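ok trying this again, last paste got cut off
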Amino acid sequence: MLLNVIARGPEDQSGGESARPPIVLLHGLFGRARNLGFFQRRLARTRRTLAIDLRNHGDSPHGPMDYNTMADDLLDTLAHHAALPATLVGHSMGGKVAMTLALTRPGMVHSLLVADIPPARTGHGQFSLGEQMLRVKFPPYLNLAEADALLRPEIPNADVRALMLQNIRLGENPGWIIGLRDIVSSMTNIESWPYIPEGYTYPGPTLFLAGGNSPYIRREHFGVMRRLFPNYWLERIEEAGHWLHVENPTRFAALLEAFTEQY
């Protein structure tokens, strides 16, 4: 499956930066490529960048989801755009897609940044939120303010709710533009970690970013992180939870840019 891509790069492609591996940005569950526009625009001053809508999200096609399938989507899409090998940057679900591709096709991944998700089942997820979203009853017409009020009881965090609002078709005949039923029916796969054959590792530089207030990356995960990604290190972003790039974008951008500048 070829995925929707938002591509940005420096206006002047003649410099040495244009020859460096492209940077690929992967959103989390219920996100979309344009959610990462702030970071993409910063990186695109000097680097070729591709922000991608994963399947069932944004403007990409819909279908059943598991991480091996989504990693294949990503590989096919990057090959189509002549963007391999690439530096992969993924948050949450997007981080698992990036890790899966790095472990199964390490030669296609130049370096890896994973935001607030370990290579494991965490016990945290959004299954109940997905079911609640399916139960939303849309009126015949909906504007942005009304949509915000419609989601507020289920999503009290204003920043996260603003991201979710981008998944609603406003105006006449409003509704979800994402493949919500496919997402909910695949939620067990999304919240799990795929089978990785024994001996598979990714030896490239790998940075894990963890929200200081997030329960996702825990000490018990460090062993499997080291086994699968032997050259990883971990940075914590204080005063941020799981949506660390939304809650502390300044620190997230600084760490992202330092990593991509070095690798």
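PB: full thing came through this time. The first strand starts at residue 5 and ends at 8.
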